[in-house]
Amino acid sequence: MLGTLGAALVDIVGREHVITDADVMASYLVDWTGRWRGQASLVVRPGSTAEVVAVVKTCAHAGVAMVPQGGNTGLVGGSVPARGHGAAGPVVVSLVRLQRRDEVDVAAAQVTVGAGVTLARLQGHVADAHVGLAFGVDLGARDSATVGGLVATNAGGIHFVRYGGMRQQVAGVEVVLADGEVFSRLDGLAKDNSGYDLAGLMTGSEGTLGVITAARLRLVPDLPCRVTALLGLAGTAAAIDVVVALRRDVPALEAAEIFYQEGLELVCRHARLAAPIAGRWGAYLLVECAGTDADSLAGALFRCLTAAGVDEEATAVATEVAGRRQLWAFRERHAEAINNLGVPHKLDVSLPLGKLAAFVPAVHQAVAGVAPEATTIVFGHAGDGNLHVNVVGPAPDDDGVDDAVFRLVAELGGSISAEHGIGRAKIGWLHLTRSAADIAAMQAIKGALDPHGQFNPGVLLPPV
Ligand SMILES: Cc1cc2nc3c(=O)[nH]c(=O)nc-3n(C[C@H](O)[C@H](O)[C@H](O)COP(=O)(O)OP(=O)(O)OC[C@H]3O[C@@H](n4cnc5c(N)ncnc54)[C@H](O)[C@@H]3O)c2cc1C
Questions:
Q1: Does ligand 1 have an atom closer than 6 angstroms to the CB of 32?
Q2: Is the pTM of this model over 0.90?
Q3: What percent of the chain has pLDDT over 70?
Q4: Any atom of ligand 1 within 6 Å of the Cβ of 89
Q5: Could you tell me the distance, in angstroms and rounded to a whole number, from the CA of residue 236 to the centre of ligand 1?
Q6: Which of 1, 188, 437, 456 has the largest count of CB atoms under 10 Å?
Q7: 139, 147, 160: which to mutate for ligand 1, most atoms within 8 A of CB?
Q8: Which residues contact 338 (CB under 8 A, 6 or more apart)?
Q9: Which of left, alpha, beta for 308 (phi over 0: left; psi -120 to 50: alpha)?
Q10: Strand, helix or coil at 308?
């Protein structure tokens, strides 16, 4: 049943882009982990900025809330509506049809793309231009995650240690606001101090301030040579020592990812892979360097690893694409291997680097204290002090482990969200990371830009 709102939306986007069939809608209403499920009245898929404007005005006029959605790979429940609305629920606004891909601007080293372009397609678009440029953010969900979602979550990813996250790459955005007005800052000026940084404000806004329809993105030099090494180390403290040495002595360092024995064994079982290094190790560190000369890269990397006392016998190295992919699989296949165990509680946290070694045993203990039967798998971006604590066992709506982990993180001076955002999953703990004044300021911004609370209600901010 389309109803009045559905009929009005069909007039804007066409019948095939208004989805009301429950089976077809299902995949838009559950997140990647299966932990977050919701209900919506329909899904609408606008194909241009003008159509987004018309959709936003129509929903606003009808007093219906909107949930912007990209690739639906977000891990904090922000991309799916909440439960309990039934057919009167919000509208999911899927942006995947916004596929604008402008020519790469070589002089500015920037490119403008639509919100629905996936990260992999963006990477391919820039590579196909053959102008020696690349995009600086990369992550495991690259085939589905969209530019709009990456901007809206201020995604971090595996190259953060070198290039920073999305905030560092966003030179401008085009956004449709709650009243249907469009603000567009896509000129990509290198310097522009003419007022508030609205693109910066939208970066990390999690769909609560407007619908991002396009982004102007900075590009980095495309580095043709890469050396990847997987190291077996005594434990987290040893891994952090290596990361600190690499960050200091090897400017070509592009990734420093950590995982542990239980995660490695799980991935090996799940993906039918043989262990990459003999023996059992207290921590595994995957490092990658990128540059223009393979020999000097490898030389700098090995001098640093030798000086740091890394055991050569416990090191696997690859320079060719296939070998490097194989080493990355041990890290990147953690997420799917964990999902295969059951619905995970995915707790993405960051800590001061000096506290990481104490945090790892403490978090296992904290989880065991509230959920003794749970399986806890930790992995993450060691270079940024960012760990993903994955807990399988407790029911999706049992947030006892979330509470225990977030309180531990707060005690150690960390953040309850390193890169995934707050979404629906972490609203109850926002006060552990942000002060009352911070939250009031964010609520004031929300109230000014979305006075009727129509974008993503129940995400990021507690109700006023
Ligand atoms: C295997 C795997 C690996 C991952 N690795 C990383 C990682 O290394 N680093 C990292 O940071 N994240 C990672 N993620 C999380 C996820 O990929 C990112 O959060 C990504 O940015 C989400 O993009 P998306 O298009 O899927 O957004 P969605 O999941 O669709 O949405 C995420 C949020 O953005 C909002 N949003 C989406 N599109 C728009 C838009 N056009 N306008 C306004 N708001 C919008 C939604 O409302 C929601 O709040 C990973 C996820 C998976 C499944």
A1: yes
A2: yes
A3: 99
A4: no
A5: 28
A6: 456
A7: 139
A8: 266, 344, 377, 390, 392
A9: alpha
A10: coil
Average pLDDT of 381-395? Answer: 96
Q: Please report how the helices 356-370 and 400-411 are oriented relative to each other, as an axis angle in degrees rounded to 10.
A: 150
CA of 264 to the centre of ligand 1 (A): 25
CA distance 177 to 57: 9
| CB atoms inside a 10 Å sphere around CB 167 | 15
User: What's the CA angle centered on 359, arms 245 and 390, to 5 degrees?
Assistant: 105
> What tens digit of pLDDT does each residue of 67-102 get?
999 999 999 999 999 987 655 689 999 999 999 999
Cα–Cα distance, 132 to 324 (Å, whole number): 21
Q: Which protein residue has the closest C-alpha to ligand 1 atom 16?
A: 74
Q: Is 95 in the pocket of ligand 1 (CB under 6 A)?
A: yes
Q: Which pair of tokens denotes residue 92?
A: 């999911």
pLDDT for 34 beyond 70: yes
With a 6 A CB cut-off, is 69 part of the ligand 1 pocket?
Answer: yes
Cα gap 345→341, rounded to integer Å? 12
Which atom of ligand 1 lies nearest, measured to the CA of 150? 21
> Can you point out the beta strands (E) in 124-181?
133-134, 170-176
How many other β-carbons are positioned within 10 Å of the β-carbon of residue 441? Answer: 12
Q: Do residues 345 and 390 make contact, with C-beta atoms less than 8 angstroms apart?
A: yes
Ligand 1 in contact with 79 (CB < 6 A)? yes
> What does the mean pLDDT of the chain come to?
96
Give the residue whose CA is nearest to atom 15 of ligand 1: 74
pLDDT tens track for 137-186: 999 999 999 999 999 999 999 999 999 999 999 999 999 999 999 999 99
Strand-pair category, 66-69 with 170-176:
unpaired
C-alpha 8/C-alpha 6 separation (Å) is 5
CB-based contact 458:82 (threshold 8 Å): yes
DSSP code for 312: G
141 alpha carbon – ligand 1 mean position (Å): 8
What are residue 9's phi and psi, to 5 degrees?
Answer: -70, -35
